[in-house]
Design goal:
heterodimer; A: 106 residues; mainly alpha; B: 674 residues; two-stranded antiparallel ribbon; 72% helix; disordered C terminus
């Protein structure tokens, strides 16, 4: 564990987390397929998880790691519900293109 | 303080009667409604009598040799066991005060009130809304007793407003008749004007004395015996405005004649005997203030004298029996104001009591006549009822002699006391006395005119079916007639001696002598006799003369029969401009243009903003996400640029435990991210 503390600087982890998060955001914004969008959300969640773990380790704080478990649990629940919704949407609309799922506007 | 007088019970019983008859009345049998309605004032009257008797014992027991008598030492003040209003230093309690003044007043209110309740049993028999009538009558007694017992201005004001409300309700008792509804509204609105002045007076009292209780004001005044500042005059003039509204004095008397739209017992109780005397009572109650304000006192006297004369002249030519009595009431109330104005408060209250006897009697007798004639109120269609309604005739005769001021009837003593007190007040007082004397002549004339037109001569319309009223109506008549005859025998000296602790003027009073008083009373009796003789000539010996006189003086007659066109004057000067102002300025400009315009403007702004913003709601998931990301980015950018020196940004990221190893701060994080 010591190599982590000494050889790899903290900023690298944070940088990686930021890159992953940005990838998630970009993916969310540009992809049209609902499943891909959904995966982008998972990516963002895990990027945040990574920074949680990093800070928790840095500050010797267990709370950050507990948060990660919470996030993972919620993500699992969200995946179940989200996939169910996606399936339901596909059954009704026969498409997964987010641009065409826009019935909520005025 | 001796044993409790249980003052709160006095208003309680009428209130219970009001609740019972008001809520359940329409489901109860009439007999039960009657019992409840009459029992409530009877119980109150019994309590008042009991307390009053105790005070009499204490008055006679004040000699040291009498030993200890369980008696009531006046004034008795009882506060309900909680603070009503506490705002800063101001504290108002529900204090009831029983002193000589309120004792006399309560006797009148509950006693005459009880008699009129009994009378109503017969008069209102068969009327729709019988229970409503009795519940209102009981409610009136509740508010009136609260008004009389109040130990501070605020509680008095509640009673004051309450009796005004009941007056409105009972004037409009026959609300299906348009004129009755309009008369009720008129009474209420005109009273509001007076109440406004009263309220201003109360506020001035509060800001001047810091308290609203009569006792507290008396203490403050006694600590500063030389103080008679302008503010006292202003307070008294404001109170006077209130009194002129409630007691139907110039210039706010106009509601009282119209109030005759109500049932006749209501006219007797509220618009003759009790409620309209509230203004006189209020002035007597606050006389410590008036004693320090000579200008206000003179105003009271002048208003009273002017009203007395003014109303008496109108009464000369009225043909409606109740309207004659209404103007007569206004005139007699003017006498009471005149007495208050010359600081003869005892004389004012004395006349108030006597007036309540004979004026209630006059109204009830008039009601009996109207009842007998099936609702006819026009005196020109009456006549010759002497033999058909003997009891009514004889009791009415007693009342007429009493109000005209013939000895030994009640009105003689009280009117005499007022005129004497006025005469003693220098040159101005002599003028007031003269006005009072002329009014006495006019009073005698129009009362005997009424007497002749109603009872004497030959019937001027079909009165064959006229019949004497039921016994429940006649008994109150007889009792009141006895009081009208004998009431004055108490004598003003004994009366004012009893009243002195509560109503003695705290200012130098001129002293007279009994010879002068005797001469003045002779003059008053002569004036009354003259009035009778003129009436006798016009309405018995030469019945064609009134018409000739009216034809000879067409303008004068028209002026009087149209009541000096005061209603028309107020209509043109106040009511019409007010309506025009409401319609054009308030209605069109303020409501439609300004308020409506602002509303339309606001709605338009919201509408346009919505039309712009709704383009954001594209329904496109990715556009929402983009805005979200942009928002987060903007917040982060803002935090980075403003740095962590801001306290709120620190607390935003602050977490326990406080960083010991502080080589990573938000600013450094920003640098690391670059």
């Amino acid at each position: 564990m010591s190599f982590l503390q000494h050889d790899v600087p903290l900023s690298w982890y944070l940088l990686l987390s930021a890159i992953l998060f940005s990838l998630g955001v970009v993916g969310f914004l540009i992809k049209r397929n609902l499943v891909t969008v959904f995966m982008s959300i998972e990516l963002m969640l895990n990027a945040v998880n990574l920074s949680f773990v990093t800070f928790a380790y840095q500050w010797h704080e267990v709370r950050g790691q507990i948060f990660v478990f919470f996030v993972m649990m919620v993500a699992a629940a969200e995946a179940a519900v989200g996939l169910a919704i996606i399936i339901a949407v596909f059954r009704v609309r026969s498409t997964l293109a987010v641009d065409r799922i826009d019935l909520m506007k005025l | 303080m001796n044993e409790s007088a249980h003052l709160w019970l006095i208003p309680l019983f009428p209130f219970l009667g009001f609740l019972l008859n008001g809520i359940l009345g329409s489901r109860l049998p009439r007999r039960l409604v009657s019992i409840i309605g009459v029992l409530a004032p009877l119980v109150s009257f019994a309590i008042v009598l009991n307390d009053f008797g105790a005070t009499i014992i204490s008055a006679t027991a004040s000699c040291p040799s009498c030993g200890t008598v369980t008696a009531l030492a006046l004034p008795v003040a009882e506060a309900l066991p909680f603070h009503w209003i506490t705002i800063g230093a101001l504290q108002v309690d529900l204090t009831l005060v029983f002193d000589q003044l309120s004792a006399v007043m309560l006797l009148v209110v509950t006693g005459v009130g009880f008699l009129i309740h009994i009378y109503s049993l017969g008069y209102m028999r068969g009327e729709p809304g019988y229970a409503r009538y009795f519940s209102f009558l009981n409610l009136f007694l509740f508010f009136m007793t609260v008004l009389v017992l109040a130990g501070n201005f605020l509680l008095m004001f509640i009673g004051w407003e309450g009796v005004g409300l009941v007056s409105y309700l009972l004037i409009g008792y026959y609300f299906e008749r348009n004129s009755a509804a309009a008369a009720g509204k008129k009474a209420f609105i005109v009273n509001r004007i007076g109440d406004f002045g009263f309220l201003i007076g109360i506020f001035l009292v509060l800001s001047t004395f810091g308290t609203l209780s009569f006792g507290g004001i008396a203490v403050t005044l006694s600590l500063q015996p030389a103080w008679n500042g302008t503010v006292l005059t202003v307070i008294c003039l404001c109170l006077l405005v209130g009194a002129t509204g409630k007691s139907a004095q110039l210039p706010l008397y106009i509601w009282l004649p119209d109030a005759m739209e109500g049932p006749t017992p209501v006219s007797a109780l509220i618009h003759a005997a009790t409620m309209v005397t509230a203004g006189v009572y209020m002035i007597a109650r606050t006389h410590l203030l008036f004693d320090r304000a000579p200008i206000a006192l003179w105003t009271v006297a002048i208003v009273g004298a002017a009203t007395a004369l003014f109303a008496a002249t109108i009464a000369l030519v009225q043909t409606d029996i109740k309207r004659v009595l209404a103007y007569s009431t206004i005139s007699q109330l003017g006498y009471m104001f005149l007495a208050c104005g010359v600081a003869a408060y005892s004389a004012a209250i004395f006349h108030l009591v006597m007036h309540s006897f004979f004026k209630a009697l006059l109204f009830l007798a008039a009601g009996s006549v109207i009842h007998a004639l099936g609702g006819e109120q026009d005196m020109r269609k009456m006549g010759g009822l002497r033999t058909k309604l003997p009891v009514t005739f004889w009791t009415m005769t007693a009342a007429v002699f009493a109000i005209a001021g013939f000895p030994p009837f009640a009105g003689f003593f009280s009117k005499d006391a007022i005129l004497y007190a006025a005469f003693l007040q220098g040159t101005g007082g002599k003028l007031l006395w003269f006005v009072g004397l002329v009014t006495a002549l006019l009073t005698s004339f129009y009362m005997f005119r009424l007497w002749y037109l109603t009872f004497m001569g030959e019937p001027r319309s079909e009165t064959a079916h006229a019949h004497e009223s039921p016994r429940s109506m006649l008994i109150p008549l007889v009792i009141l007639a006895i009081l009208s005859v004998c009431g004055g025998w108490v004598g003003i000296d004994r009366f004012s001696a009893y009243l002195a602790p509560a109503a003695q003027a705290h200012r130098p009073m001129p002293t007279g002598n009994s010879a002068l008083e005797f001469i003045l009373s002779i003059a008053a009796v002569l004036a009354a006799l003259e009035g009778w003789l003129i009436a006798d000539k016009y309405y018995r010996r030469k019945p064609e003369r009134p018409a000739q006189l009216a034809a000879a003086l067409p303008n004068g007659y028209k002026l009087l029969s149209n009541k000096y066109y005061v209603d028309e004057f107020y209509g043109a000067v106040i009511v019409k401009p007010l309506f025009a102002f409401s319609k054009y300025v308030l209605g069109w400009v303020v409501d439609t243009a300004i308020l409506g315009g602002i509303t339309w403007l606001l709605a338009g702004i919201a509408n346009i903003t919505g039309m712009i913003l709704q383009r954001w709601q594209s329904g496109n998931l990715r556009s929402y996400a983009a805005w979200l990301a942009a928002g987060v980015a903007a917040i982060l950018l803002f935090l980075l640029l403003t740095g962590s020196s801001h306290a709120w940004s620190f607390t935003l990221f602050h977490s326990e435990p406080i960083l010991k190893v502080s080589h990573i701060s938000v600013a450094q994080f920003g640098q690391a991210a670059h």
